[in-house]
């Protein structure tokens, strides 16, 4: 079998594993690497583990915090609050909040920083008209274990040019680490502000979803990736609630659980082949779930949390109906119905959206074994209707937790 050398092109999945105070995290990224162009941009420990490998090989390398991306106190900046000047379409709409991330270009008066700069800057202090931001790479605070899975190796027949890609920067610089609290200070997602949950269309959801929408909300590869995670995360049998269910479920077909759907459109759920039963319910109107205490082994909420206007009430209900040690998952991508998504969601970076869900779980309490996953970089299927708009598959983000067997009261 052909081994990787400088004349190779390879397909590799890099799985970055790291831990914060309250959760474990995995960032899974598909990379299509031209060895001749890209290999010298990999960390030396990764380079040494790639060269000489063949298809199917797996390797693991560890990095201490700051080893991949240096942390520097020089990247902690003291500013005036008035220097926060978001540009269109955020101008006048948002104010800096503690623990949140904003593009560095939102802050004026910084040397060599232009409005187009999207480097993430985290607000770590707001006090007396002053603001402090941290522009270190968010994941630079953490130890990281990297697993590499060599999927395909092929010989390059010619060199036709092209740009060099710094794959670790692509995978890690703008996103991973943003889903966690800063030094255990709760992130201010404005949960108490009613405007957080406003939507462009405030009519009842039963009106919007009256007509069936027989479409998928992620492409086939993203669906495959979600089922891949569920193969590992969901119980193999029992009773599962598919919360905010519709035309498509993402529970693997070989899962032997009895699946109940709860959604807004009867025709969509009747056509969902994975559902064994279903119930019609508008949870934004009334988040009380029509099930007994500790009835379900798992609850999945796929591609829907961004529409929920009473998330704390809903997740308390999820906790109530879960058995002890029962699994709760929340997944989403970057597609949504613009008129029905809550306002806050549109203001958040994709990785902050995981932080939003994580923060709710921490404040509700009663959950353990919390994990987050991101899956990115895979190719979009050729037959997808959005192929040509972007060649990348829809990104996948997932938050996972178990109900604590020693339950505690909600805050």
Shape: globular
String of helices and strands? EEHHEEEEEEHHHEEHEEHEHHEE
By DSSP, the count of extended strands is: 15
**How would you state the average pLDDT, rounded?**
95
Residue fraction in strands: 25-35%
Largest sheet: 11 strands, mixed
Query: Taking Cα atoms only, what radius of gyration do you get, to the nearest Å?
Result: 22 Å
| Helix fraction bin | 10-25%
Low-confidence stretches: none
Determine the structural class based on helices, strands and strand pairing: alpha/beta
> How many DSSP helices?
9
- How is the largest sheet built, in terms of strand order? 3-8-1-2-14-15-13-12-9-10-11
Euclidean distance between termini CA atoms: 58 Å
Write the layout of secondary structure elements.
Blueprint: E1 8-19, E2 24-34, H1 35-38, H2 44-50, E3 58-63, E4 76-80, E5 101-103, E6 120-127, E7 130-134, E8 144-155, H3 167-172, H4 205-208, H5 220-233, E9 239-245, E10 258-263, H6 266-270, E11 277-280, E12 296-302, H7 311-321, E13 322-332, H8 343-347, H9 350-364, E14 367-376, E15 396-403
């Amino acid at each position: 079998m052909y081994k990787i050398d400088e004349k190779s092109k390879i397909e590799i999945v890099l799985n970055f594993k790291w831990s914060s105070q309250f959760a474990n995290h995995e960032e899974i990224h598909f990379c299509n690497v031209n060895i001749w162009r890209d290999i010298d941009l990999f960390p030396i420990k990764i380079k040494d583990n790639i060269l000489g490998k063949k298809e199917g090989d797996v390797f693991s390398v560890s990095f201490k915090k700051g080893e991949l991306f240096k942390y520097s106190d020089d990247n902690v900046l003291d500013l005036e609050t008035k220097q926060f000047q978001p540009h269109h379409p955020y101008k006048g709409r948002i104010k800096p909040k503690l623990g949140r991330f904003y593009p560095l270009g939102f802050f004026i008066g910084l040397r060599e920083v232009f409005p187009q700069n999207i480097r993430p800057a985290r607000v770590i202090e707001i006090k007396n008209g002053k603001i402090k931001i941290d522009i270190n790479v968010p994941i630079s605070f953490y130890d990281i274990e990297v697993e590499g899975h060599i999927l395909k190796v092929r010989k390059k027949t010619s060199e036709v040019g092209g740009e060099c890609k710094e794959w670790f920067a692509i995978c890690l610089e703008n996103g991973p680490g943003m889903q966690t609290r800063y030094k255990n200070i709760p992130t201010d997602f404005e949960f108490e502000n009613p405007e957080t949950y406003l939507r462009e269309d405030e009519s009842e959801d039963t009106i919007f979803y009256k007509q069936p929408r027989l479409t998928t909300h992620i492409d086939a590869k993203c669906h495959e990736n979600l089922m891949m995670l569920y193969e590992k995360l969901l119980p193999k049998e029992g009773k599962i609630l598919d919360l905010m269910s519709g035309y498509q479920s993402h529970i693997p077909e070989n899962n032997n659980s009895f699946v109940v759907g709860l959604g807004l459109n009867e025709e969509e759920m009747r056509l969902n082949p994975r559902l064994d039963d279903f119930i019609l319910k508008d949870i934004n109107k009334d988040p009380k779930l029509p099930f007994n205490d500790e009835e379900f082994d798992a609850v999945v909420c796929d591609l829907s949390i961004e529409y929920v206007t009473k998330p704390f009430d809903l997740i308390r209900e999820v906790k109530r109906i879960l058995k002890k040690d029962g699994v709760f998952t929340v997944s989403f991508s970057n597609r949504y119905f613009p008129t029905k998504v809550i306002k806050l969601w549109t203001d958040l970076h994709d990785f902050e959206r995981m932080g939003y869900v994580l923060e709710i779980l921490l404040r509700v309490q009663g959950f353990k074994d919390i994990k987050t996953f991101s899956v990115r970089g895979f190719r979009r299927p050729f037959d997808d209707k959005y192929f040509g708009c972007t060649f990348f598959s829809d990104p996948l983000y997932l938050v996972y937790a178990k109900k604590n067997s020693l339950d505690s009261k909600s805050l």
